[in-house]
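Risk register update: the risk of archive-format incompatibility is retired. Evidence:
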Amino acid sequence: MSTDRQPTDSAPLLVYVDLSRQEKFHRQEWELLLGAGNSAGLRLVSEEKDAECSLVPASPWQFGPGKSVFGYSSPPADSIRRFVWDFGDRPTGYEPGLYCSLPRLLFDDRRHRSFCYPINYNEQVSANDFCDASLLFGFVGANSSGLRARMTRNLLLHGRADEMLVTVQGGPWDAMLDRSGLAIKKQYADALRRCRFFLCPRGNGVGSVRLFETMKAARVPVIISDEYVLPTGIDWDGCSIRIAEKDIADLPRILRERDGDWARLATNAQRNWVDNFSEGRLLNSIACHLRELMALPCPLSLLARARVLGHPAYSKMRSGLTRLRQTIRS
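Archived output:
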């Protein structure tokens, strides 16, 4: 069961959401997300100077080509605490705030909270009836990591067609904000409807939007990502299954053994999504996380920088840039 998130103080937290970094289409999505207005725990303000803290929905500080490992933000008004809502696949964790895919090695609970993705990538996903789930498990997605490639190869070679639905395909990322009812989105939502368990392996990042889509669809997420940090305030053992990456060859057997629990887990998963991530409760959840972070000492940027510099991805990226410079010079 979920922990019912209620504001700890009688007065709502005053938050300024900075959309200045959002391009047109994402800005429209954010305006829809925030359009529900205020909640019992959070009240949006139009100017940063009137806020207790500000939230910047962006992912500019990432590992990878063409990305800045460290971001340099303009100072907030009157030393107001500023947090990010980072939905990138390879975040550095340099800024304090909410993260969708920050690996455990960089995660510091004095600075970071794991959270859901802000954008509704597939508007076709909705809660499903249990009687529609005729297959044991399924996966739809791209082989965007070695783990996924090994998993899908093993399932397609050795899995039973009568108990699974596995489709390897890329997502319509170039048309993700198209709300006209794309066939590929409907196919994905239909796959969720037909399966009792849905696989949520890490891809480009350690997090996966599938986790939250599966909960919303009233199905059981199967989390396969050793470095992923689960959001707090949820009894994940009561609404999901977590499988170690080394055990992916045993996926069908493990899920067959848990099949008798699926209706209970699915019920809890959908209830947890409603209580924590649905349109009516999302702002309350954000407020609770921001209050927790604000109650902690101001994070030390030098310590954050040291953690990022020590990450293997940074060393790999730095070596790649060095080789590129040598190639150019030669």
